[in-house]
Amino acid sequence: MLKEKLYELRKSKNISQEEFAEIVNTTRQAVSKWERGEAEPDINKLITISKYYNVSIDYLLDYEINIEDPNEYISKLQNAVDNCIYNIDNEEVKLWVNKYPNNEEILRLSANYLLVTSLEQEKKEELENVIKYLKKLMTIKKTKNDSLYEIENIKHTIAEIYIMLKKFDEAKKYINVNFEENEILYARCCLESGNYKESLDILLENYIKTISITLNNTCLQLSNLINLKKYNETYIMCDWTIGYVESLIESNSILNRYICVCLFVKIVLAKVLKKSFALDLTKLKALINNVNDLDTTTNSIKVYFGSKGMFYFPNDQLFEFLEKVFELFDESNNSDIMNLYKRYKETA
Question: Which of 215-219, 244-248, 263-267, 323-327 has the lowest mean pLDDT?
Answer without folding.
Answer: 244-248
